[in-house]
Amino acid sequence: MGVALRLATRLAFGRDAERRWRQVCVVLATALATALVCLSVALVAVSWRVEETLAARTPDVAQDDEGSAYLVPRGFVKDGRDVSVLWIEPVAGHEGESRIVPPGLEALPAPGEAVVSPGLLRLGLGPEVLGFDRSDVGQGVGGTIGPEGVGTQDELLVWAVPAEGRTLDRVGIPLRIDGFPSAPTLEAEDDRFDVSAPQSPIPRPPEMRMLTVFLVVLPTLVMTWLAARARSAVRAGRSEDLLRHGVSPRIVRTILALEGALLALVGSGLGALVSVLVSPVLTTIPLSGSRFLPGDLSVDPGTALWVVLGVVVLAASSSSTIPLAVSRRSRPPGRVSAWRLLPVGAGLTLVVVPDLLGTTATQVFYGGAVMLAVGLTWSVPYLAQLVALRRRSREGGHRWLAAARVVHAPRTASRVAALLSLAIYLGAVSVSIYVGPGSGVSSHERSADGPAVYVVDWHDGRPDDVARLTEGLEPLPGAVVLPLAPAGEDGVPTVMVRSCSDLEVFGPLLVVAPCTADGEVSGEALDLFRTMLHMGISSAGSLDPGGDPAEALDGALVLSSGPVSQDQLYVLGGELPAFNTYDVLSEAQPRNPLSSWIGSAWLISIIIIGLAVVREMAEHSREVRHDARALIPIGLSEDEARRVGSWTLLLPILAAAPVSYVCGLVTSLFGTGVSATSYAPLWITVYTAVIVAATLMASRAGSRPSGT
What we know:
Blueprint lengths: L1 H12 L3 H40 L3 E2 L7 E10 L2 E10 L22 E4 L1 H5 L10 E2 L22 E4 L14 E5 L25 H23 L5 H12 L4 H30 L22 H20 L4 H6 L11 H15 L5 H33 L2 H12 L1 H4 L1 H20 L17 E6 L7 H8 L7 E6 L8 E4 L25 H11 L2 E4 L15 E6 L5 H8 L6 E4 L9 H39 L6 H33 L10 H22 L6
Parallel strand pairs: 3-6, 4-5, 10-11
Antiparallel strand pairs: 1-7, 2-3, 2-7, 4-6, 8-12, 8-13, 9-10, 9-12
């Protein structure tokens, strides 16, 4: 082993110019691979940390009718993002209990006060803007919620306490809690109620694991495997010399594996060092839309060491599988087995079965998608050889020779096609998730400059609440606030109007005129109101139902002739206890954080595959120039020799691209059955056409002889 190690060291770190290409390829690829895998591990770890934070602020539900506090989750949408407003109020006699204090706070805010998260404060939505007094009980910078109470730096969260004399208590409505867990667990429990947020600020651990494995780790491993097979004339010559001198192929492959491991150790060590030093100050990932807490993405040396070991083993394995020159000439090439299609078939089965069986086995679907991605890459040599065999029997000239080369060495000829196949499939799946469930945005949205209709409600209504809300809405264009009486025996709430003129602002949304000639509400308008809003209309003498608190209302219909955003409305009425808004004319939901993370991970995967393609194209260009010198003496012109190289690259692409495209369409289609994707054939077709065209253009440019 000592002799083999010395030979491998000289082979790896020799200073010949011919070795430089392989040295640079292996070192850079393994450094990048180590850094990206370390980042992926850190992202999965931080997703679990966020999950623990959500669990810590998920309260224990009271098992009786008392409890220690009332809790009412509310919220609104700001610039497409959820703002979670959690109202809390201690039950009489439990004011000083520490167990009802949410994580990230030193104590409950005083009545009428609120504490906001750092992310909300950066958006300019401090407590005063939302109608509250500022509290100083937050454990974070500037009195904001502390790190223990927020998942990320940009999570939008408010803890609020009703004003003095107001309460959250309403029969059957507020959640009664015993407090927050001192030792939170991630397991679901019957006495826990998830009011932590409308949605996690980042993808949940299973989603994050799927994203990193599918779009980061998998392309990284493929790039590393191919880079470790970068060719070197010196390396090939030395292995051939050893074989000629009687050294067994097993020992030669051991030397080649050690050579690859030594180069990978240098690159992987550099990648690990950069990860350990840089990760503590890293707080965001491009396009993800998330800002993590300081140190969240830190990579400890122990984790980095395991990643280095894995990358080195992968590079060594790949280096040892390079065909040996003598053995390649001494026997004819073997056909690539059709068994390489088995993972593709298995992956397709796992993708299709959940939808056909009517189950919601999302993990089975995603597992099939990962198997398909791996299987497509592995099956390309077989597909390329299959196409080349058929083309060889029908073609002549340079195409025949190119087909013969693909048949002779399908694995070598298929490297670019394998990367392209992976890029097509990953892109198709990413696009399908991004435009589908990952977007979280409905296509039914209110016009940006059209009228607005909101239903609002709150707890502990008082006689002057509607008037106060009306006064606050005066700056808004043509705003009208109409009290909303609770539903009667027919289950339909009633809008109270002073006169039919109050409905004029609603006129543009109605097909018919809201009022008759004598100023009464028209029958058609009544029918449309009941159909569109599921409400009735009743006349009232004033906006306030009366001075008796028993007659106070806690709901209203807000009409505006101009645009009013949900966050504008919440800012104007948010101080009302448990204030809630519902946009009647829009079904749009806040964008799911998963969509931004899909875009970010997909960008990383495209960069990885793009770098691998560039490396393979550069190596292919070197081979074309080398082969041209060997083909011209046997009678081919320089132009014909160049075309042989181009078609050697093109045939595997023609074999692999259609298969990956179809598999992408199938995954997109059947993913709709488990709510994982949206069928997007147009986007997949456009994406596939663009990436194939770009690869072919690069191939054509790289195959040109130098000097042209």
